[in-house]
Amino acid sequence: MDNAAYGYLALFLWFGIAAAIPVLLALGIPAIVMTRRVRQQERLGHDAVYRGLKVGEQ
User: Fold this and answer.
1) 51 near 40, Cβ under 8 Å?
2) What are the backbone angles phi and psi of residue 50, rounded to the nearest 5°?
3) In Å, how far are 9, 14, 28, 29, 55 from 22, measured between CA atoms?
4) pLDDT exceeds cutoff 80 at 54
5) 57 — phi, psi (to 5°)?
6) pLDDT in tens, 3-49
7) How many CA atoms lie within 13 A of 22 on its CB side?
8) Longest C-alpha distance within the chain, in Å?
């Protein structure tokens, strides 16, 4: 492989990584938020879903 081919391969990899980052963020951030919400509901009990997760109010 000559130097030009390595240059094109490097460009292709950089553009692939740059295109994948927003996709990974778009999938990862909601998953983290949902995981935290589920853990909080499990900690508060099953009825927390119906009460609206208002911990301080009674």
Assistant:
1) no
2) -85, -20
3) 21, 14, 10, 11, 34
4) no
5) -85, 140
6) 889 999 999 999 999 999 999 999 999 999 999 988 888 887 765 55
7) 4
8) 72
